[in-house]
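Comment thread on ticket #2218

A.B. wrote:
> Attaching the input chain for the structure job we discussed in standup.
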Amino acid sequence: MLEKTPIKIFSGAGTEYLSNKIVKFYKTSLGKKSILRFGDGEFQPCFEETVRNNFVFLIQSTFQPTENLFELLLMIDAAKRASAYKIIAVIPYFGFARQDRKDKPRVPIGAKLIANLLSAAGVSRIITMDLHADQIQGFFDIPVDHLYASVVFIPHIKKYLNMENLAFASPDMGGTKRANAYAKYFRANVVISHKRREKANEVASIKIIGNVKGKNIIIIDDLIDTAGTICKAAEVVMNKGANSVRVMATHAVLSNPAYERIENSVLKEVFVTDTIPLKKKTSKIKVISIAKIFADVIKQVYNYKSISSNFII
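C.D. wrote:
> Ran it. Output below, let me know if you need it in another format.
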């Protein structure tokens, strides 16, 4: 009988906080890796153990700074040149995903460029969560396992937020499909926010489509950046007679002044996952870990098994 191909799991420097949780659920330990840093800021990752003919899983979210993305690319290249059998990039938060199309002349399609860079570096497969746009999967010519945070959010809603008059809201027209999936699962109403921007990260106005009076609203989103949209949407919804407003968003980008906006808003609670580490703790922001999901999916991919059990909606 042929010996099974070994598995090694490594972490990028920016995601070690999550990688340690993932390998704990997997009941293993992270592979040994070092980073040589030069005086001018250049750096060189190095695997301190063999990866020859191994399944190599590289865990790294590509949030700011861009150094996180570049470290992942260098790790992929190092694994390829060290004769790894397969190289799987586990990217809980896929950065640059908002650049999924040309929305005005003379701009890049950043998400496609990142897909090209990962493929050129030598990655065999991508595992990620809640892409800003589902069609980004089509930017790759390799398998993409696209996971959803609903697998942790839905049980949390059932256990802790089982409220009457529940309704789900989208913060903008683009998130309608996501909010509608939750509403369909819970047989609840869906509310849509029509958002108008005058420039990036600045919301000019929001109009609410749907009845919110007397409802306990949960806004569903893939990420929170400056929190301007969700805070303004929550204020409009409360002014229209909602009982309460909460948010469930996968990626806590939380650029300035997001923390202050959330803390001073009418929002009751904001639930996020740990795909991105929080810069500071606040009373309203609660973290739900997705480490177990990624550990399960890594195990299923390694054993050539279906991952469909990790989907609820």
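A.B. wrote:
> Thanks. Noting for the ticket: Residues 243 and 309 are 35 Å apart (CA to CA).
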